[in-house]
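Curious: why these numbers?
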Amino acid sequence: MSPKTGRRSRQGLESRLRIIEATFEIAAELGYAGTSIGKVSERSGLPASSVYWHFANKDELFAEVIQHSFDEWNASFADPVPPADQREQPDILRQNCRHLVASISSSPEFWRLGLMLALECQAVEPTARRRFLEIRRVVLERLADFWRAALPPPSQRQNPELPGRLARFTMATSDGIFVAAQAEGGGDLEALAELLADSLEALACRHG
């Protein structure tokens, strides 16, 4: 690759990222319906032709914003720490619960945007909504994998469905935290995250 071609490639990636970031900022303020290519162009400082060069339409743009936000969260999602022996199990489970909730609370972009799209399902075009639902299934399986690794093997042998149920509970309660935070103007996400971690730990121990 020539230096000139490499420079164009970098500029293209930088422009794409500016468009994605501008779209998320506007969507967080105005929702899906209130976001337009014109507003994205103005916020990103790039001409509308540049936006359309990267994305065919608003639907495709939103799908990529969701994917980008998810990829950032997925890269930060820490694998659970296994206990060295059975005596460490309660402390390690508590630590894993807090790491899990912290990863969701500290990187809520795709979660918030996805919920917004789900609530605006009448207005959302097929590609963005389909991408969100696909990612949601991936997240659910990732959460189930987390619980398979975090829970003691005896509890899983007694209750093989426990990791999947805890994954669904984790997702549902996380949904609720973000809906409540938006409705109440922010709220104390850290305190709610701690309460969720306590609940997950107690639920896992109870069913384990």
